[in-house]
Amino acid sequence: MVSFRKLGLLPLVVTPVIGSPMQLERRNSTDKAPRNKVIIDNDYLAGQWDPYLLALNAGWEVLGLTTCTGNTWMPQQAKHALAMLEYGNLSCIPVYTGALYPLVSTYERFHSWEAVHGDLPWQGAFAPYNATLEAEGWDPSGGSDPYRIVQAAFTEGFPTAAAQSSPGAVQFMIDQVHKYPGQVSIFAAGPMTNVALAIRTDPEFASLAKELVIEGGKIDVNLFQFNLLFDPEAAKIVLNANFPRILVSGNVANSVFATDEWIDEVAADGTAAVSMVDPSIVLNSTTFFIDVDVAYASPNYGNVHAYQKALAPPNLRNITYVLQINETRFKNTLKSIYQKPITCADLS
Ligand SMILES: *[C@@H]1O[C@H](CO)[C@@H](O)[C@H](O)[C@H]1NC(C)=O
Ligand SMILES: *[C@@H]1O[C@H](CO)[C@@H](O)[C@H](O)[C@H]1NC(C)=O
Ligand SMILES: *[C@@H]1O[C@H](CO)[C@@H](O)[C@H](O)[C@H]1NC(C)=O
Ligand SMILES: *[C@@H]1O[C@H](CO)[C@@H](O)[C@H](O)[C@H]1NC(C)=O
Ligand SMILES: *[C@@H]1O[C@H](CO)[C@@H](O)[C@H](O)[C@H]1NC(C)=O
Ligand SMILES: *[C@@H]1O[C@H](CO)[C@@H](O)[C@H](O)[C@H]1NC(C)=O
């Protein structure tokens, strides 16, 4: 059901693009203007390179990668993040460990909800433990040991470095928005536990960030609501917080790349990232007010409710929701980042 779980190593070199590939402008090191900065918070699996490669390619500074449990347990994901950086010669970007558990949800609570309302198509770390699958190279799941590392899942290579736990992801995010007020985009590609903890730890966190960016297949497609369903309480805290701007990329690229399977598989992460770094790629967007259902007994637990202004309850935030991007340009940009990926040598 979930193809990205078995997503292997992406080619770092792909066939040249016909015509002139649109390449986002690379950083000009003599340029003194403050660089755009981003922290990418994700539940990393093998192969999820495109958000940080797109950001780097556009001249953005990737301050760090932060991880929290979602697709699999956080310790395994932190190692995936490290391994992908090592493979891409990008180990100058630090990785920070984050939340091991969702705010309220537990393995048992999650499955009790499913027993009443039906199974979700993707359960991530909360999928029942399956020794056969793990032996085949699937990432660990199950309720007993969140620290278990399954080496067979590292198609991108097993990392030699360790993630940083002091400060952890939450304090790192808080420190960075204070260091660079109004300049740091928070790119939330996984469950929003770390971001929620940062908001609850520091009342200034959200307002000091530049914006929150969310990949939006997560919101309008059943499968990808996983990120909200895995930690609904965190998602509500985050989407109700006073970020100056919340950008959500809709399910804009799902049917576009049927002939380019590998692009199709990364497109969900990429549309949000490319809309963040290259706003002019957005051809159509809309604005509405948003909330997350946190009634555990509800069949809509963890689902989004959207409102127009006149009907919205007080204190909700409006989001900019991307409906359409320039697909030609997106495809060319995605290819160009893999043709000549940025490495730490380019960043020094
Ligand atoms: C970098 O910026 C400087 C000053 O704006 C400019 O003179 C120079 O041509 C730029 N270099 C590149 C490679 O764009
Ligand atoms: C990383 O560096 C190694 C050794 O210099 C090189 O062989 C490899 O092609 C580099 N990988 C990338 C993605 O640049
Ligand atoms: C483990 O996964 C395999 C492959 O999907 C499946 O055939 C098997 O029934 C699963 N085992 C358990 C105990 O769920
Ligand atoms: C949504 O918020 C933005 C600021 O982020 C504001 O400019 C815009 O007017 C708001 N839209 C509505 C419909 O309130
Ligand atoms: C933007 O998308 C909406 C919803 O799909 C559609 O009704 C509208 O015509 C689109 N606008 C443009 C300029 O394409
Ligand atoms: C989309 O991007 C391509 C390549 O950059 C460009 O030629 C085309 O005019 C753009 N289309 C729109 C509708 O902006």
TrEMBL record:
Gene3D superfamilies: Ribonucleoside hydrolase-like. GO terms for molecular function: hydrolase activity, hydrolyzing N-glycosyl compounds. It comes from the Eukaryota. Residues 38-278 form the Inosine/uridine-preferring nucleoside hydrolase domain. Keywords: Signal. InterPro entries: Inosine/uridine_hydrolase_dom, IUN_hydrolase, Ribo_hydro-like. Residues 1-19 form the signal peptide. Belongs to the IUNH family. This is Inosine/uridine-preferring nucleoside hydrolase domain-containing protein.
